[in-house]
Design goal:
alpha/beta; globular; 5-stranded mixed sheet; 11 helices
């Protein structure tokens, strides 16, 4: 059974909308034996973990271990970005992607001029969304473009692009950086399906106009081993703008269908390829070149695509811990409030100012990109607990709380605690980096109380200590008994 937070904020014992500033000091509780045993099994000392547990509506900790220590939060930092985004931009905020044209339009639908696409950082400009812009351009009477495709990406400062990847896996989708014209998370999904006739079908999403697949795979007999080489294509861009993806080797039938996700090309080439694939599939023609540039004064507006509301974006960010969406939201906050072009400094200033207005001063807070995919971002467990208390008592509580993964049910918590009593009764954001494990969110306990729970583990053995966090959530669900 899901906790009521999916529809309403967690209720405080006395008043669901006011935090008790001068609550009595409770008897401090120690971590239960189930947690300390799990930490000991993982060889994680108490000095490497920080924990805060509070009743909803009462920011006085019931449990506080290393509560003020700045820690690496991993993806739980997304809670800061998404709460600030919902509060500053509003739950109904929608990104706009616009099309402009110059030149003359013939009666036959040929545009003798350039088509301009202007982006504002829509985090979810996937094929199902971008086709709306294509259709609107077609409804404006354009069927052929006798000019160039020009991408206006001034909404984000150039310094925010082409950043080095977080780690050595440069083609991993989680390493994709932000962009004003982010398309389909700048990642390709290749699905390989072997058949008994010896062929291996390859499907790719999204379609890119310049992508050519060279399929030299052979379906083979035998056990499903050594499939990694067949799954990973050799991607080669050419000077003429085309891109080859070569698949070769044996693919065992017993492996069945497999999907691999790869981040390829730069943002400009990826967006242009995706847009032109949709344009041509809709019957449009284009034989020109693509480049970046501003929409000129005097260009006429053809069409505007409005993306999903921020409430839906925040749900995707927190449920599935989407780093690139979080980074686009982080930059959007700065651009909207402090005017474009967006920079991390502008966004940090807006978020820190917002937190200050909420009496959430966090001297230890360090924001780099707002996603937690960073070794430079820090926050304390107490500061994040304070934010969770305020978010739960805020006008955006419903959207914020409902965006968190539910234990054993969905998002990054779907496979955790499925056979435990806390199943369905905790909304928990998770965080994972090498040497970092984190949880933060809300638990509706079996005693009728609701609690804020935050814990960070920063240790070289953190990966082995997930059981300690699960045990902590189970203990809180049992009413700290």
């Amino acid at each position: 059974m899901l906790v009521a937070a999916a529809a309403l904020a967690f209720a405080a014992p006395a008043d669901a909308r006011k935090l008790r500033r001068h609550a009595h000091t409770p008897v401090a509780l120690q971590l239960p034996a189930s947690v300390t045993r799990a930490l000991k099994r993982a060889d994680v000392p108490l000095s490497s973990i920080s924990v805060v547990v509070e009743r909803i509506g009462d920011p006085t900790p019931l449990v506080a271990l290393n509560a003020q220590t700045p820690m690496l939060p991993a993806s739980t930092m997304k809670l800061v970005t998404t709460y600030a985004g919902l509060s500053v931009l509003g739950p109904d905020y929608r990104w706009r992607t616009s099309a402009y044209a110059d030149g003359n339009l013939d009666p036959d639908g040929t545009l003798h001029g350039n088509l301009y696409i202007q982006g504002t950082g829509d985090p979810k400009l996937v094929p199902e969304e971008l086709i709306d812009l294509v259709d609107k351009i077609r409804r404006a009477g354009i069927t052929a473009i006798d000019g160039e495709l020009v991408l206006d990406k001034r909404f984000f400062d150039p310094s925010t692009r082409d950043l080095p990847p977080f780690d050595d896996d440069a083609e991993a989708p989680y390493n994709v950086g932000p962009d004003p014209l982010l398309y389909a998370f700048k990642s390709l999904s290749f699905t390989l399906t072997p058949s008994p006739d010896g062929n291996v079908a390859i499907d790719v999403i999204p379609a890119l106009a310049q992508l050519q697949i060279d399929n030299s795979l052979r379906a083979s007999a035998g056990p499903c081993v050594g499939v990694d080489a067949a799954l990973t294509p050799s991607v080669t861009p050419h000077r003429n703008g085309t891109v080859d993806a070569l698949f070769s080797g044996d693919y065992p039938l017993r492996c069945g269908p497999r999907t691999i996700n790869l981040a390829v090309l730069d943002h400009t080439a990826f967006f242009a390829g995706g847009f032109l694939a949709l344009w041509r599939s809709a019957g449009g023609t284009f034989n020109g070149t693509t480049h970046e540039g501003p929409v000129p004064v005097g260009a006429r507006l053809l069409a505007v695509h409005r993306g999903p509301v921020l409430t839906d974006i925040v749900r995707d960010i927190n449920k599935f811990s989407n780093n690139v969406m979080a980074r686009n939201l982080f930059l959007t906050i700065g651009a909207v409030v402090n005017k474009p072009p967006a920079t991390p400094a502008k966004s940090r200033a807006v978020i820190e100012r917002f937190l200050h207005t909420q009496a959430l001063d966090m001297p230890e807070l360090a924001l780099e990109n707002g996603s937690g995919l960073s070794r430079e971002e820090h926050i304390s467990a107490k500061s994040l607990a304070d934010l969770l208390q305020h978010a739960n008592a805020s006008p955006v509580a419903q959207a914020f709380v409902a965006s968190l993964p539910v234990a054993g049910v969905d998002g990054t918590m779907r496979n955790r605690l499925r056979s435990e009593p806390v199943f369905g009764n905790a909304h928990i954001k998770t965080g994972t980096l090498n040497d970092v494990r984190a949880i933060a969110g809300y638990v509706a306990a079996d005693n009728g109380q609701s609690y804020v729970v935050v814990s960070f583990i920063n240790d070289r053995h953190a990966a082995a200590a997930r059981a300690a966090h699960d045990a902590l959530l189970e203990w809180v669900y049992r009413g700290l008994r």
